[in-house]
Design brief:
The complex is a heterodimer. Chain A is of the alpha/beta class. Chain A has 10 helices and 5 strands, in the order αααααβαβαβαβαβα. Chain A is globular. Chain B is an alpha/beta fold. The longest helix of chain B has 17 residues. Classes of the chains: A alpha/beta, B alpha/beta.
């Protein structure tokens, strides 16, 4: 059988098949196919929110699980993330227009002295996909940078990331400063990065350590639900 | 005529000795009690070269995989096992051929547990450059990608392939977006390695700089091990 005969024509697939195929394409990091699939679903009248959650986020969730289980490695995850990003680029303005449901807001940045942002970017993207307004303040962020962003965006969640053992203690500097200023309890603080662990997160006074982007999303949702319930209880 | 690298090691050691007034351990006829160095595979060649130059024949070198550079969480637990094994093999004197190397103090806990020393400093880039110099630079190297002799020699297999850059060079931007230069810290003066380092920098799209360091503080770490020689 020739390669041509094997080729899958996305437009010929029904919705369920197409979504399943998009999960596979995300897994394989096929950017162009994700763009095509996204446009086909939108053309069939899908809401941008449904395309995002059912095709892209669900696909990345599967990628995340296989990364955690050691089946996929960083390069594959980055290719998948790149593919998802290309779909998000199409959906982002449409989501803004259609007023998709919002779960909360987040400020996220890599701490001072650290320029690594692969993990942070993945978390930001998955949080956005899950319905959070994400304000990414970049790399090498000092305490003033975090405070200014908190003041400007009033986020529900503050996310801090570090890849180096030499920079991760800076997270405590930020948290301690927030305590001094009396704003610590106004925000949920999530921390992550390769050298961190739960013990470290707890020791510096973060609300939770998140070992990967999927856990960050689930943890953020849990904290938002708690916050919602507390507000409802008065 | 002695090969170039032998001459070079000698010059390097002479410089070291003149600075530190090292008393060279004299040869003797006693069988040397063994000392085991358990080192990172990334510095194996350099440790052997320094030993050779110092005339140490009492050192047994064992290495943990160089790939732990990418997974520093393995270093402390594997070092713990390696030290236990070394003791079981009859080595009383053990030296850890690692700096902190991204273990965040976990390696120090293992060293304390077994009462052994390690190379001072945060990582090999620092001890090659000289820990004092690195510390005084105070963040000047934040956006620097370091290349050593090892990394120049093994860039293809140790960096390019594991990062998927051989098949997907488009990932360069995601990995190295915030790096501004590649600095080759050369342990030896080797034109072929320098060319490889230059090509690595070019591949990564980074400005290239060269700095000859020799073995830096690795020498300071190994010279005292001569005291364990009879």
């Amino acid at each position: 059988m020739s390669e041509e005969e094997d080729e899958i024509i996305l437009a010929e697939l029904d919705d369920d098949e197409l979504v399943a195929q998009m999960h596979d394409d995300l897994y394989d990091g096929l950017k162009e196919e994700i763009v095509e699939g996204t446009n086909i679903l939108l053309g069939r009248g899908w809401t941008p929110y449904d395309v995002l959650t059912k095709a892209l986020v669900e696909g990345m969730r599967i990628v995340g699980i296989d990364f955690r289980d050691g089946i996929l490695f960083v390069p594959e995850v980055l290719l998948a993330a790149n593919a998802m990003k290309s779909g998000m680029t199409i959906l982002r303005p449409l989501l803004a227009e259609t007023g998709a449901p919002k779960l909360g807001s987040m400020v996220i940045g890599t701490v001072k002295g650290d320029i690594h942002d692969i993990g942070k970017n993945l978390v930001g993207m998955m949080m956005e996909g899950a319905g959070f307004d994400v304000h990414d303040i970049g790399i090498n962020t000092d305490v003033d940078g975090y405070l200014a962003a908190i003041d400007e965006h009033k986020p529900d969640i503050l996310g801090m990331s570090a890849l180096l053992t030499t920079t991760m203690p800076y997270m405590k500097v930020v948290i301690d400063t927030m305590i001094e200023k009396g704003i610590r309890d106004d925000h949920t603080i999530l921390v992550g990065g390769a050298p961190l662990n739960e013990e470290f997160g707890s020791a510096i006074g973060a609300d939770a350590y998140c070992r990967d982007a999927a856990v960050a999303v689930e943890t953020a949702k849990e904290f938002m639900a708690k916050k919602h319930n507390q507000m409802a209880a008065g | 005529m002695a090969p170039f690298f032998v001459i070079y090691y000698k010059q390097s050691l002479d410089k070291y000795e003149s600075r530190h007034e090292v008393q060279k351990v004299s040869d003797n006829s006693h069988p040397a009690p063994k000392l085991r160095i358990i080192a990172c595979g990334m510095i194996a060649r350099e440790v052997m070269a320094v030993n050779q130059q110092l005339g140490f024949d009492h050192i047994d070198l064992k290495c943990l995989p160089a790939s732990y550079h990418h997974h520093p969480e393995h270093i402390a637990p594997e070092m713990d096992k390696a030290i236990i094994k070394a003791r079981a093999d009859g080595f009383e004197n053990i030296f850890v051929g690692y700096a902190d190397c991204g273990t965040g103090g976990e390696l120090d806990k293992i060293c304390q547990k077994h009462n052994v020393e390690r190379i001072k400093g945060p990582h090999c880039f620092s001890f090659y450059m000289g820990n004092k110099n690195f510390e005084e630079a105070d963040g000047d190297y934040l956006t620097t990608f370091f290349i050593t002799d090892f990394l120049a020699r093994h860039f293809e297999t140790f960096m390019k392939r594991p990062l998927g850059l051989d098949k997907h060079p488009e990932l360069r931007e995601m990995y190295f977006a915030h790096y501004t230069k590649a600095l080759y810290l050369a342990q030896t003066q080797d034109r072929e390695l320098e060319q490889k380092a230059r090509e690595a920098a070019e591949f990564l799209g980074l400005e290239y700089e060269y700095k000859y360091t020799g073995y830096g503080d690795l020498l300071d770490a190994i010279v005292p091990l001569g005291n364990d020689k009879p």
